[in-house]
Specification:
The protein has 754 residues and is an alpha/beta fold. It is built from 25 helices and 30 strands. The strands form eight sheets. The protein has a seven-stranded mixed beta barrel. The longest helix is centred in the first third of the chain and has 25 residues. The protein is globular, with a radius of gyration of 27 Å. The two termini are 28 Å apart. It binds iron/sulfur cluster. Iron/sulfur cluster binds next to helix 6.
Length: 754
């Protein structure tokens, strides 16, 4: 992967100059997070001290990773940029679309058949444009990234919220929407609000039943699911240095559950060991040479209160194993208090299934610690009472733990090994009987446990714990069991106790794999054809959007005046629609179907001004499109909040909506609209929202002199012949105005490439 090592060298070569420049403007000792952020500024120069939680800053990430569900639209859009290759090293990982049902081999075969067109597309588009492609069965994106691509001091974006996992290897790694991934692959800047910083000081050392997972379970209990919002969490202290690199990854991974932008650890010997253990001694040597820049300044860690916005201290020597849940990952229970909580909460005490693995907890260390418990079930004549499944995070880990005999141990205990994929973690679990919606309990070593996430059953009480605790509970089959204090009755009727887990951080014989499932891209992809069937209902090649006609836009029909909350879910619903996420025309049939029409208080029922009849929003808009008439959507406050899904901006653009006029925008959605060449406008006077009438024809005036900081005018031509002219604001800068004129940001890139 020469592409990568060259990129890493470049990052490290520039690090000293960039950190020195940052020191000058910030004018105080730097956290690790600041060093990485300042060394990845888009223009390469730290010219100002950014205000945490306020300044919007353009960054230049080093690489992009995408999972198969979100990669589809990102890559379809990227193709529009006209570039021969991606601008930064990028990879695609086929992990989310594999359903767990009967075990690894059969499930993988089924997925390969059912998702063939998606995999063929992703494989061919990766081959053509220089992306690494990880086939179905290769593993979960974040584990594969940790094993192959993450590097200390780097910056990565990924189209999945657990991209943050790479913080375990010292990287600022952030989950984003497909539009951001497309931009970075196309060579554009990536914008982020400069984060606040939370410092977590770890003292002491883990021992016995406690593991890295318990650190984040504890932190989740302290900060709750919202406490990390807009912040990067930086871990430091002697306790941090004592944790294995993959343990650090587990902590960063689950940082997504406290809403953190990302989490990070500084470079240390554990990371160097992991890099060497995963065949990257060259990266470790490069990192060693700049190690002082790959951790926070000493003054910062000596007096963290002066440099972080919030500081938390955890003594690992005193930390108990935790179990979090049900239904939310921040309901944290120390093991000693859990049995009482189960009884008090009236949660089903009988444990049905224990599930270990996922991108959060499937390292060699995790598997060996869990296996040391599983082995005791066999040695001590215990019959596992609950079902037990293992989801390896990557083929490399699976092959290695199989070679070293650990999978056999799980099988002896009655465990089922699932495919190296997301499976039950993302609801891709055909759990027998889930449709009956019975109240039941499961426990996993995954990260999320919201209702319905694992098996679709709202009555499944899902708890989160470390793999070793999950394994012990699966043996006991009882949520009130405490493996640290309680005994179990074995097949001979004897009382036996489980010993503390023991693990091995890195395989003594080294990692091994026969076929990691990687497909390198063609050296010259110009002759490679991207495979998309014209009859596919899941995938559709995109056509460039039309450029602005060069005049004011007049005679727009009001499509909908949305009332109240209108999130990206209201604009482009998820659920069953997600299967069309690679087919813009098909998914556009969900456009705004969740928005409430101001005039009749109903969802998905608007007046078609051509016929006077009420109909579904997408159908009405298609009627306008067929008649060659543009339209406008009016909305309330914070329009487009929620997930950064790019479809919410692409669908209206595709169906012929020309402008979105609202009281205020959620910033990411506003930017997404601009990128697609739409007009994103706000009322200068919010009371003008009330002037919009159901039969209005609307003109947008002032576009021929469209300029930053200059309002536009909107004329409301009412049905009774009267008119209102109102002032509307916008936040377009000069470049974004060019995007509008060209019909979208990608049209500009394409023009510049040719
Ligand atoms: S294993 Fe779970 S958390 Fe990890 S990427 Fe897959 S769905 Fe997301």
């Amino acid at each position: 992967m020469a592409f990568d090592i060259d990129m890493i060298k470049k990052v490290y070569d520039n690090l000293d100059a960039k950190v020195t420049a940052a020191r000058k403007v910030v004018n105080k000792p730097l956290t690790l997070t600041e060093k990485i952020l300042y060394s990845h500024l888009w223009d390469g120069a730290a010219t100002t001290a950014f205000e945490r939680g306020k300044s919007y800053v353009d960054f230049a990430p080093d690489r992009v990773a995408m999972q198969d569900a979100t990669a589809q639209m990102a890559l379809l859009q990227f193709m529009q940029a006209g570039r021969p290759q991606v601008a930064v090293p990028s990879t695609v990982h086929c992990d989310h679309l594999i359903q767990a049902k009967e075990g690894a081999d059969k499930d993988l075969a089924t997925a390969n058949t059912q998702n063939k067109e998606v995999y063929d597309f992703l494989s061919s588009v990766s081959n053509k444009y220089g992306l690494g492609f990880w086939k179905p069965g290769a593993g979960v994106i974040h584990q594969v990234v940790l094993e192959n691509y993450a590097f200390p001091g780097g910056m990565m974006i990924g189209t999945d919220s657990h991209t943050v996992n790479a913080g375990g290897l010292g990287m600022v790694a952030i989950g984003v929407g497909g539009a951001d991934a497309c931009d970075v692959m196309a060579g554009l800047a990536w914008e982020l609000k400069f984060p606040k910083l939370i410092g977590v000081k770890l003292t002491g050392k883990l021992s016995g039943w406690t593991s890295a997972k318990d650190v984040i379970l504890k932190v989740a209990g302290i900060l709750t699911v919202k406490g990390g919002t807009g912040a990067i969490v930086e871990y430091f202290g002697e306790g941090a240095n004592s944790l294995s690199c993959t343990g650090k990854g587990t902590i960063c991974n689950m940082g997504a559950e406290i809403g953190a932008t990302t989490s990070i650890f500084g470079y240390d010997t554990k990371m160097a060991d992991y890099l060497r253990g995963t065949d990257r001694a060259d990266v470790a040597s490069l990192a060693d040479a700049v190690a002082h820049h790959l951790t926070g300044d000493e003054e910062v860690y000596a007096n963290p209160e002066l440099y972080f916005d919030q500081v938390i201290e955890i003594n690992l020597s005193e930390l108990e194993p935790h179990i979090n849940g049900p239904f939310t990952p921040d309901l944290a229970w120390p093991l000693s208090k859990f049995a009482a909580a189960v009884k008090e909460g009236g949660w089903p005490t009988k444990l049905e299934v224990g599930l270990i693995g996922s991108c959060t907890n499937s390292s060699y260390e995790d598997i060996t610690r869990a296996a040391s418990i599983a082995q005791q079930a066999v040695d001590k004549n215990l019959q596992a009472k609950a079902e037990f499944t293992i989801t390896p995070g990557s083929e490399q880990v699976r092959y290695t733990v199989d070679r070293d005999g650990y999978l056999k141990i799980f099988e002896n205990m009655g465990g089922v090994v699932l495919a190296n994929a997301c499976g039950p973690c993302i609801g891709q679990w055909a759990r027998h009987g889930a449709e009956k919606q019975e109240k039941n309990s499961i426990i996993t070593s995954f990260n999320r446990n919201f209702a319905k996430r694992a098996d679709g059953n709202p009555n499944t009480h899902s708890f989160v714990a470390s793999p070793e605790i999950v394994t012990a509970f699966a043996i006991a089959g009882d949520l009130t069991f405490n493996p640290m204090t309680d005994t179990l009755t074995n097949k001979n009727g004897e009382q036996v106790k489980l010993d503390e887990p023991k693990g091995i951080e890195l395989p003594i014989k080294g990692f091994a794999v026969e076929d990691a499932g990687f497909q390198a891209p063609a050296a010259d992809g110009s002759a490679v054809q991207v495979l998309v069937s014209e009859t596919s209902d899941r995938l559709q090649l995109l056509a460039p959007f039309a450029a602005w006609e060069g005049t004011d836009i007049k005679g727009l029909k009001l499509l909908i005046k949305a009332k109240g909350k209108c999130t990206t879910d209201h604009i482009s619903m998820a659920g069953p629609w997600l299967k069309f996420r690679g087919h813009l025309d098909n998914i556009s049939n969900n456009m705004l179907i969740g928005a409430i029409n101001f005039f009749n208080e109903k969802a998905d029922t608007v007046k078609n001004q051509l016929t006077g009849e009420y109909g579904a929003v997408p159908a009405t808009q298609r009627a306008y499109k067929a008649a060659g008439i543009g339209s406008i959507v009016v909305g309330d406050e914070n329009y487009g909040e929620g997930s950064s899904r790019e479809h919410a901006a692409m669908e209206p653009r595709h169906l012929g909506v020309r402008a979105i006029l609202v009281k205020s925008f959620a910033r990411i959605h506003e930017t997404n609209l601009k990128k697609q060449g739409m007009l994103a406008l706000t009322f200068a006077n919010n009371a003008d929202y009330d002037k919009i009438q159901e039969d209005d024809q609307i003109d947008i005036i002032g576009l021929t002199s469209f300029a930053p900081n200059t309002p536009l005018s909107v004329v409301l031509n009412h049905k009774d012949g009267s008119k209102d002219e109102i002032s509307v604001n916008h936040t377009y800068n000069a470049q974004q105005i060019e995007w509008f004129k060209a019909g979208g940001a990608l049209n500009i890139i394409r023009a510049s490439v040719k």
